[in-house]
Amino acid sequence: MKEFLQVLRRFVPPYKKYIALTATFNVLSAVLNIFSFAALIPILQILFRTEGAGSATHLMPWSFDNIKEVIANNADYYVTQLIANVGPTTTLLVIGLFLAFTTFLKTGAYFLSSATIIPVRTGVVRDIRNQLYRKITSLPLSFFSDERKGDIIARMTGDVQEVESSIMSSLDMLFKNPILITFYFGALIFISWQLTLFTIVFVPIFGWFMGCVGRKLKKKSIKAQSLWSDTMSQVEETLGGLRIVKAFCAEEKMNTRFSNINNEYRDAVQRVNIRQQMAHPMSEFLGTVLIIIVLWVGGILVLDNKILSGPSFIYYLVMLYSIINPLKEFSKASYNIPKGLASMERVDKILKAENTIKEPLQPKHIAAFDHQIEFRHVSFRYGEQWVLRDINLIIEKGKTVALVGQSGSGKSTLVDLIPRYYDVQEGEVLIDGINVKDLGIHDLRQLIGNVNQEAILFNDSFRGNITFGVESATQEQIEQAARIANAHEFIMQTEQGYDTNIGDRGGRLSGGQRQRVSIARAILKNPPILILDEATSALDTESERLVQDALERLMKSRTTVAIAHRLSTIKNADEICVMHEGEIVERGTHEELIALGGYYKKLHEMQK
């Protein structure tokens, strides 16, 4: 219960007015229920002509000392007067109409109490999803290198849905059942405190039985949701690698792997659901046992001790039945809430993940890039493995610096330190003499444009992709950027021009076309610093020529850091840095490095 209340404290406060409304309507529903069923006493007295029916001859003055006798006497007096005036059968009709009217009001209040809790349920789930999405976009790239995309998707879909269906559906239990139980329990004490005292001895015993069955649900639910993540990861991997699956005729292998995971998930969910389904029959059985015990003890009070009248005992049973239903809801919640808490625990792994790339408390703002980028004694590691060691490099404004070397030598990691996708462990990265850790993150990244080996596009139109992050661009500016990127012609050949949707990840375009759209996006942003990460390595010769031409236009008057495997694309760079095992082992122009006869010359001859 403590964990459940902590979840509510985090997400429910914005919906206080709805909580107040639902509590008000629940109080009204409970009061009306008590008063409506109180009409059963005179009905039974009239029907069975029991002792006490029509015996009141005068009204008693109100007194809290003997309020029970006052209410019984005065109610009986009014019924007596009604019988005397209109007869017993018409009196039954009048009392019946009173019962129907109060029941109508009660059910209306009950409906309103449920209706006012729905905005809380749906709103909290929406807020959790929004927080998850914002957290995902704010977390550093290092977080996602340790997580599977399918697992994150599973947490945002299946786990959040489980929170909605388990925890949020139990809000009724928290804001309705305690109110109903309190009022109905008060009515039971008022009718017969002796019988109520005997009854409450058994309620904790029955609650203990229910708890025994539900204690293991959270652990089993965590395992089930973990297996759901494995299932989603398998689907995500299959969709991403479908071309390879078909190329290697591995459909049956993937089908078998998915089937095994899916069967394991089904078995885990089956165990959870079977245990969960025990809630209703067990609560039904224990409720019946309680009624039998009350019937036996109440019978003694009515028949032997004459402490309680027959109609009052029937009214007591009706109130007891009314209180059993909220108690059953509590028992269901003891099964549902652990499932939701298990999912919330998985959601919190993202929501409470530490963002290691922190905005400075008093960030320095920078509007333009004027002088140089400097790597000063920079060392970086992933975990315990050092990837960069004591890098010293100055990139002056307007110059092009190329990074070459074998895969895994640290080239991409080095350029990722400039926009603070990662932070260095030793040394510092400076822009115009200011440590990037002291700059506002958005100010820093506004200065930088990226063109990567894999063109990252979105399921949107050409216009939406080119203007990504530059929403105020005019049509003229969009077309100018596309022309510089050699993309305008093929865009205009599509059915709707710039409004044509390019499909998931630009799947309707060729590799060269995707790359030119991403270059147009970088041109429209017009950044003073440009990072090219093997932007032409995955293209055919003709596409490479078009893209290279677009890149050369983009690089004019900009400071460029280019990673390249094809040395032919960076011959004209102002400086080429050769990296090997996290260190810069050679640097100079193309001609100087060839003349040096070292590692660069070997790479060049291998490509020739």
Automatic annotation (TrEMBL):
Domain ABC transmembrane type-1: 20-339
Predominant localisation class: membrane
Keywords: ATP-binding, Membrane, Nucleotide-binding, Transmembrane, Transmembrane helix
Domain ABC transporter: 373-606
GO molecular function, a single term: ATP binding
Mode of membrane association: Multi-pass membrane protein
SUPFAM superfamilies: ABC transporter transmembrane region (SSF90123), P-loop containing nucleoside triphosphate hydrolases (SSF52540)
CDD domains linked: ABC_6TM_MsbA_like, ABCC_MsbA
Listed PANTHER family: ATP-BINDING CASSETTE SUB-FAMILY B (PTHR24221), ATP-BINDING CASSETTE SUB-FAMILY B MEMBER 6 (PTHR24221:SF654)
Name of the protein in its database record: ABC transporter ATP-binding protein
Organism: Leyella stercorea
